[in-house]
Amino acid sequence: MAVIQETGTSSAAVSRRLASKWPRPVWHPPWKTYRVISGHLGWVRCVAFDPSNEWFVTGSADRTIKLWDTASGQLKLTLTGHIEQVTGLAVSPRHPYMFSCSLDKEVKCWDLEHNKVIRNYHGHLSGVYCLALHPTLDLIMTGGRDSTCRVWDMRTKTQIFALSGHTNTVAAVLTQPTDPQVITGSHDTTIRLWDLRKGATMATLTYHKKSVRALTAHPTEHTFASGGADNIKKFKLPQGEFLHNMLQQQRAIINSMDVNEDGVMATGGDNGSLWFWDWKSGNSFQQQDSIVQPGSLDSEAGIYALSYDMSGSRLVTCEADKTIKLWKEDEQATPETHPINFKPPKDIRRF
Questions:
Q1: Which of 48, 31, 43 is nearest to 319 (CA)?
Q2: Torsion on CA atoms 247, 238, 269, 47, rounded to nearest 10
Q3: Could you tell me the pLDDT band of residue 351, with boundaries at 50, 70 and 90?
């Protein structure tokens, strides 16, 4: 070993190659479409599941909200009342209520026992893009084109806060039972974590270079992910420390994302690409393109919203070709038939 000098510095030629410390991805079966529902007459913009998992609702650019049976895919109910595209939906787990928001600046509360609008929440100055319910308090958060996220009291219809600070459209909002109780993503490329007691920003995350249109929180870890046209990034809560980028780039405007308890994250792009990711390692194990329904243009491939059902075993995507597609895992697939294609990153980029 004459290469090693007396000073004890070894040459690079004999130094051992260390194995990557990056976690190996868990194998997940690929997902496949098993049902296509067409019933809406416009782009399908949003979806929400009922807590009992028996039905789900979709809102559309045809200004209607449709209720579908999860098991059979049959239409159960059509609700009309908005006068513009319905952009956000949420079903309350604690009340027989459903909430919807629309580009007509309206936020409505529907009584699901009578299928009627019982409350309107007035105050947005322009279209409302996203809506979320607080998990433990009777509060609704809505974000819109007036670059505020407004916090409403569900019962009294009063606006508690207008969370202002973003300089462009608020496109995504997440709520949590613990601080930060509200997280917003905006077209000004920032993500803000809000203190709900003061109605003020706790932290501003400026890691994205492009608009943030999608946010999703992990069901069990205290982490969340955000999607922009540049990258999908993962953050740790409560401070919002940046963890890492996902290892591949989808190269699309990401409109929606969701993650289930198995750690499978799905992201839908405006070019119809649906990518599935392993949450822990950030590796994409399936890169799917949505097929437009017959009679549509190829340019109508676009995913506006996606959501797992309550069990996490089914995925619903809402698309620009006016269809709703349901996905499930391929039961025949094995690690041998669909091996993981994984290259650990050489250097992990901290931005």
A1: 43
A2: 140
A3: low
Residue labelled with tokens 């090693």: 4
Q: List CB contacts of 296: < 8 A, sequence separation 6 or more.
A: 321, 322
3-class secondary-structure state, position 8:
coil
Q: Which pTM does this prediction carry?
A: 0.92
Asked if 285 and 28 count as a contact pair (C-beta separation under 8 A), the reply is yes
Nearest to 327 by CA among 30, 28, 32: 32
Q: Which of 14, 39, 6, 16 is nearest to 318 (CA)?
A: 39
Average pLDDT rounded to a whole number, residues 80-98: 97
Whether a cis peptide bond, with omega within 30° of 0, leads into 180 is yes
What is the distance between the alpha carbons of residues 333 and 104, in angstroms, rounded to a whole number? 45
- Indicate if the pLDDT at residue 2 is higher than 80: no
Amino acid at position 346, single letter:
K
Structure confidence at residue 227 (pLDDT):
97
Q: Is the dihedral of CA 69, 75, 80, 86 positive or negative?
A: positive
DSSP 14-38: TSPPPPP-SPPPPP-PPEEEEEEEE
State mean pLDDT over 323-349: 91
Per-residue burial over 62-100, b = 16 or more CB atoms within 10 Å of its CB, e = otherwise: bbbbbbbebeeeeeeeebebbeebbbbbbbbeeeebbbb
Sign of CA dihedral 241, 246, 249, 251: negative
What does the pLDDT look like over 9-65, one tens digit per residue? 555 555 566 667 889 999 999 999 999 999 999 999 999 999 999 999 999 999 999
Structure tokens of 283?
């590796």
Instruction: Classify burial at 251, counting beta carbons within 10 Å of its beta carbon; exposed 0-12, middle 13-18, buried 19 or more.
Output: exposed
| Distance separating alpha carbons of residues 100 and 128, to the nearest angstrom | 10
3-state secondary structure of 351: coil
Tokens 């890691």, residue located: 207
> Quick check: 154 pLDDT over 50?
yes
